[in-house]
Each structure stands twice: as C-alpha cells, then as structure tokens.
Amino acid sequence: MQQLEKKVKDGDARVLLVDDDRQLGSMLGDYFAGERLDLSVSTSGEEGLQKFAGEAFDLLILDIMLPGLSGLEVLQRVRRSSDVPVIMLTARGDDIDRIIGLEFGADDYLPKPFNPRELVARIKAILRRSQRNGTDSTRLELGTILLDQRTHRVTVGGEELRLTGTEFEILRCLLETPGKVVSKEQLSERALGRRLLPYDRSIDTHISNLRGKLERSGSPDATIQNQRGVGYLLIPGT
Amino acid sequence: MRSLLVRIFVSFWLIIGITIGVAAIAGYYYAERVRNEMESFEFDDAVLDASAALSSGGREGLTDWLRKAPASRNVTIYIVDGNGRELLGRDLPRYLSRKLHRHESHIPRRVRTDPSNLRRARPLSQLVSGTGDVYTVLLSRPHRSQGYWEGAPAGSLLLVLALIVSGAVSYLLARAISNPVRDLRSATVALAEGKMDSRVSPSVGKRRDELGMLARDFDVMAEKLQHAAAQQTELSRNISHELRSPLARLKVAMELAKRKTGELPEFDRIDEETERLDRLIGQILSYTRMESGSASELAPVDLADLVQEVVENVNFECRAEGYDGVNVETRLDATPTVSGFAEALTSAIENIVRNAVRHSPPNEKVLVRVAEENGAALVEITDKGKGVPEGELDRLFEPFFRTRSAAADSSKPGTGLGLAIAARAIKLNGGKVVASNREGGGLRVVISLRNE
Q1: The dihedral of CA B413, B360, B315, B334: what is its sign?
Q2: Which of A157, A161, B52, B334 has the largest CB neighbor count within 10 A?
C-alpha cells in the first residue's frame, strides 16, 4: 500500500493490460504516457500471468476475450494470490460476461469499445481510493465485524476476511452509518470513484460478493439489506 | 383419460375383460346345451327303462325300478300315479307339483296301451300300463350348478384373479409404451427450455423397437441443435469481437488525435457516429441472439419485479441524458409470474419503454401497467406522444422500420432495431405484442404473456 501511494503521487503507477489486440495496446501505451501511467501489454493470458508474477503492478486491465486462457481465468488465478485492483474489458451487451467478471472479484468493468479518457478516469479513481487508506487510523466496528482503516484489514470474530479493494470500500461505507441506507450512487462514488450509470449492476454485484463472503465467514453479526430503488444498509443481528 | 398411460391401460383392460366375459358367457351356454342334451338322453333312457319295468312288473315292478333307479348325479326322478301319489311316497317339490297340476288338464284323451308309445313332453313323460293306469315321470331340476359359478366354488375367486392378472398385464403393457413417450416428452420440453444437453438415450435408447429408434433419432437431432446453438453463440461473439476491435482502436486514435490538434468540431461528429455504430452492433447482436435464446434457460420470472427494475433504469437514463422531464411511472394491478427468459423479457420491455420515452413530449409521463387478464399476464406501455399512423402500426416491429415522422426527426435517433428486438424477445417467450393508438393521442403497446 505504501508503495502504491508513493507511485500514484509520483504519477507513474504501473498498469498491466492483457489484450490480444497489439495495435490497441501500443496506442493505449502512447495515450497512457501522457496521463503519467506506465502501461505494459501482454497479448495472452499466460504471458500476462507470467509478467504479473515477475513484476509489481498497481492495476490490471483484462480483456475478457483472449485466445487460450480467457480473461476470467486469468482473473481467477490472479485473485488466488493478490488483491490488486482489476478492471475488466467486456463486450457491450454481453451481460453475462460483465456480471461474471465482477463476481470473480474484478473491481470494475468497461465495455469495449471504450473511450480511453473514461478508462483513465476509472484507473485513477481506483488508484486514488487506495491513497486514502492509512490516513484514518480509527477502527470501525459492528458486532463481530471489525474493520481497521489503517491496516486495510477486516476480521469477523477474529478471523481475517479477505476482501477486494472495492468490497473493502463498500463495507467501510456501510459500517460508517450502520442501520442507515447508503444509496447506490454514493457507494459508486466512494468505492469506484465514478458516477453510477444506467443499467449499472456493478455495485449490486459487489454487494452480493461481499454478502456471500460475510455469510461464509461463519459468524457475521450483521446483514446487508437491499432497500429497493434506494440503496443498501447494514443491519446489526442476523 | 388424458394420459396415454391411463388410456392404453383402460383400453387393454377393457378389451381383456370383455374377451373374458364373452368367452365365459359363450362357454356357459355351450356347456349348458351339452348338459341339457346329456340330461335329456339320460331322461329318455330312464323313461324307457321305467316303461320296460312297468310293462314287465306292473306297478310293483315300476316302484321297484324307481327305488333302485340309478340316481343320476344331478337329478331326482319322481313317478306319480293317476291319483297324484308318488310311488315311493315322497313329496314333490312345489314347482314339480305345480307343473304336474298344470299338465293334468292336458292329459291326452287318447291313451294308448302300448307302453313303448311314450309322449315326450319333457320333463313330463307319461307311461301307460297295460291296465290303463297313467304314470307321470317327473324330473327335478339339477341339484347342483343352479347357477353357473355355483358348480365351481372357486369360480368368483377365479374371476377376481383374472381381473387382477389382466389388470396387471394391461398396466405393464401400457407403461412400457407410455414411459418412453413420457421420457421423450420431458427431454423435448427441456430442450425447448434451453437445456441443450438433454438426451433420452440413457433411458429409452436401449430399446430395440420403434420407440428406441425414435429416441436415438431425437438424440441425434438434439446433438445437432446443440451444435448449431453453440456455433451461433460463437459466431455472434466473434462478430462482436471483430467489429468492435476496430472501433476500440478508432476511439483511442481519436483521443490521440485530439491531444495533438486540439478539439475540432468534426471530432464530435466522429465520436457521435462511432458511438452510434457501436450501439447498432450491440443491437444487431442482441436481435440475432433473440432467435435462439440459447444463452439462458427458462425460469419463473416475477413480472412486476422485472418491470420495476426496468423502469428504475430507464428513469435513471432519462435523468442522465436529459429527456426534458419525461418520467416513467409503474402501476401494478397484479403481480403475475411468467415462465420465460428473464434477460430477453427485460430487453423487450426496456426497448419499448425507451421508445415511449423517446417519443414523449416534454414533461409528460410514460405509464407502464402490469395486469392480469383472462389468465394472461399483461404489460401495457402507454405514452402521450403523437402515436403512429394507422397504416404503419403493423410495420412498427419490423427491423429498421421507422415511421415517417420519426425518420424526419433527427433529434431522436434510434437504431431502428429496438422494437424489432422487443418483438422477437416476446415471441421467444411465447407471448404477443400489439401496438395501437390511444384515444386522445399517444401509443399503447400491450405485451401479453402466458401466466404461469
């Protein structure tokens, strides 16, 4: 985390793009350079995993459609060892891919073809989110759920709960005002650093992931409830 | 009597039952006739013997014969003299004495003395002795087998047994035919619902008969369908990828160009057209996908829930894209559950609602009503726009069709596929969609779906 903050501040966070479109990769590289982002490109999932294992990256961009190992498979393997922020590139309209990407732990998605400005905005939003970590040393608590804002850790009944950056951020939002509804717009701004879009199911999917992790953790003293058309809230008791 | 099993079972059982019944009745009558004949032979013999005994020994001889008379297995012989007395002093059964009484009035006038001259009037035969005494020979009814089954005490048991056995045989036979048909049917239903890997071979394919062949043919067909569906999905993915990759590069190139030269008014136009091309590709793909519905499986869908979600999203879109205060409202008159492809239904309702929003005058409401009528689930979308000329209503759901006024109005660009996608999606769900003009202006689109 410390390292990442430094990099964002220094303005050259390292981003790895896994996409088989070589030309797109090189053009994006040019574009990113002007945005002070250092882009590496891999054209296959296998190559991408190798590169990810060998070097330190602050963020991954994975195309869903890859020859050989698919973007989803790469995501799953990455998630086994790392909580690095991941943005998926999906085909617009392929609803299933879109949702599945988030279910497997991606932080955000962007339908392809995308506007590179939008992609950069999302990357920066996610990186900026990480920057906030460590500034607040208070701990948020609800029943057996304990969230340490300094160490970026969550425990449920003493057991560590592994969350992605987005899930952590959502839980933090909900824990700040337990029992009060937090709107999807607010959650999107806080956790993803962007405005909620029409037909945007990403917050719902992240919530569902988070809910699943809390339930599987054994003894959650709180449940996340959906207030139709309004937002989500954390309610003490099961 | 709807099920094949019941029908075959009942038919078989009925046929077997009728056959048994007819055979039993025929057998009964045949046996009766044979027995009657045999009895009449016996009776004739007895009468001849009695006649011989009478002519040789007179009344005593006849009494003697009667006493020793070989008692027939079934009947008793009575002989009554002219005074109505039985020779052995036995009482006649009532029916015999009645018969005798009736008969007496008909005693023939001419009585021959020739003992061999018998009047055969079964069961009354009369013997005339040398002295002119008249003796009447009477034969009782058969003692046993008064009824058909009384002769065999196990008879009724046999009948029940026959019914049970024939019932069991019919049932097994019926099941052997209806079971594979049922399996085939459930596989067909599953296939239609999108479970492309449903096969019948494991259960029916081993049969060597026509049903087994049908099952194997079904599996071949299912295999081909599955392959075709997979190919189509693959193809549309590839098209999506191939068409969008250049668009993605185009967008990045645009941004790089903007950085170099600064914003030019033409760039906005290029962006807009790129955006439009992208939307169109997406719509063409979803239009193609609606044909097969291969991506998902049939499931119960809460229509009210689905509509609310769509309306929420479209309202969000309205706010985001500034549709001059147009607002979508939901009215739930019922909360029906339909069996369908949720994704396709969402897409259908979304496209129709979006179309209504696009053609609504500023600050007006679009109403989406969910209702139930005659067992059908309805979603009615009404707007207060200009409506559609009557002659063009039918063509509204054709791909790329646009009403003349919509085509002229470039401020409301659609891809021309939204309603076509909706119509296909609704057809895929086994429903219907009809558009009509409202009184006082505006379009009404009604989707009707089978209620689960």
Answers
A1: negative
A2: A161
